[in-house]
Design goal:
Radius of gyration of chain A: 13 Å
Largest sheet of chain A: 7 strands, mixed
Low-confidence stretches of chain B: none
Order of helices and strands of chain A: EEEEEEEEEEE
Shape of chain B: globular
Largest sheet of chain B: 6 strands, mixed
Radius of gyration of chain B: 13 Å
Oligomer: heterodimer
Helix content of chain B: under 10%
Low-confidence stretches of chain A: none
Number of helices of chain B: 0
Mean pLDDT of chain B: 96
Helix content of chain A: under 10%
Number of strands of chain A: 11
Shape of chain A: globular
Mean pLDDT of chain A: 96
């Protein structure tokens, strides 16, 4: 079955760049959108952005200046970079498969990233 | 790109029915069929329960139903069960192809 697994540092210093990778297994990355979504402690979900397998991206306007999502279909993974982080970026970060009208149907388990010195 | 507005909390007794609303604008909910609903239990990843406004993925209970009217989408849960106690989020694509989540609704089974 389709599985997604986030990986990356759990602690990032303020002003540095948060980097996470999502490894996709059980399905080709072709013909799908791949998203990053986050959830600050005790708060709701926030969409960060998505990438199509071709490399086309779209980002949350409030984060656009700091976000880069990339894809490596040969290794079946996609990545998130969020620059100039602050404590407000502390959250559980989820990667997911977005099938558009059919919804976000597969999620990773989530990884906690804390921004602190 | 503001979050869609949901009632913060809804409660009901086992067996009852409840409805959660999700209000947006003509730039998102009102102008999109890409409306979905997600259930999230504490410490878990969200789970897709409704897509394309009113369709249920395979394996999701038919106690969950949804609709949309104008700028407001609604999720109903009938025959409320203890396992339905969770947070629920709506989402919609916008007219610039970004995704926006609702503020979330906590459902409590009394």
């Amino acid at each position: 079955q389709v599985q997604l697994q986030e990986s990356g540092p759990g602690l990032v210093k303020p002003s540095e760049t948060l980097s996470l990778t999502c490894t996709v297994s059980g399905v080709s990355m072709s013909s799908n959108y791949w998203s990053w979504i986050r959830q600050p402690p005790g708060k709701g979900l926030e969409w960060i952005g998505y990438i199509y397998y071709t490399g086309s991206t779209n980002y949350n306007l409030s984060l656009k200046s700091r976000v880069t999502i990339s894809v490596d279909t040969s290794r079946n993974l996609f990545s998130l970079k969020l620059s100039s982080v602050t404590a407000a970026d502390t959250a559980v970060y989820f990667c997911a498969r977005d099938r558009g009208v059919e919804g976000i149907d597969v999620w990773g388990q989530g990884t906690t990233v804390t921004v602190s010195s | 790109q503001s979050a869609l507005t949901q009632t913060a909390s809804v409660s009901g007794s086992p067996g009852q029915s409840i409805t959660i609303s999700c209000t947006g604008t003509s730039s998102d909910v009102g102008g999109s069929n890409f409306v979905s609903w997600y259930q999230q239990h504490p410490g878990k990843a969200p789970k897709l329960i409704i897509y394309d406004v009113s369709n249920r993925p395979s394996g999701v209970s038919n106690r969950f139903s949804a609709s949309k009217s104008g700028n407001t989408a609604s999720l109903s849960i009938s025959g409320l069960q203890a396992e339905d106690e969770a947070d629920y989020y709506c989402t919609s694509y916008t007219d610039i192809s970004t995704l926006v989540f609702g503020t979330g609704t906590t459902v409590t089974v009394l």
